[in-house]
Design goal:
rod-shaped; mainly alpha; single chain
Length: 116
């Protein structure tokens, strides 16, 4: 063989995909918060009857919403890849190490609970 342990490689691959899933989740929350802020700014400017800033803020809200949709699609891909990596780790590691590694990694990476 080439000197690499297939179990360790599979576990490392799983950890990397789990990390990316959490990064996409964080970015999704940030974009969601920015959509709310843009929307509040648009409502405030609409009350003050400033039409050009309202139009620009509304356009910014739409763009941020589209970006959030794109990030959500990437996050769904990351969840699928993480599941595939976990199944690969289960297949490559004969003992109970993947389940222990998954629970350990999940406890380290869960920042916002179990969002799937």
């Amino acid at each position: 063989m080439n000197g690499f342990d297939s179990c360790q490689l599979a576990l490392e691959r799983y950890r990397n995909f789990a990390r990316w899933r959490n990064l996409w989740t964080i970015l999704l929350f940030v974009l969601g918060a920015s959509v709310v802020l843009f929307l509040l700014a648009a409502i405030f400017l609409l009350i003050r009857e400033e039409w050009l800033p309202v139009a620009l803020t509304t356009l910014g809200t739409i763009v941020t919403g589209v970006a959030a949709k794109w990030v959500m699609d990437r996050r769904v891909e990351a969840v699928r890849e993480e599941q595939a990596a976990y199944e690969d780790a289960q297949k490559n590691c004969a003992n109970g190490e993947p389940a222990e590694a998954r629970s350990r990694v999940d406890s380290q990476l869960k920042l916002f609970g179990s969002i799937r």
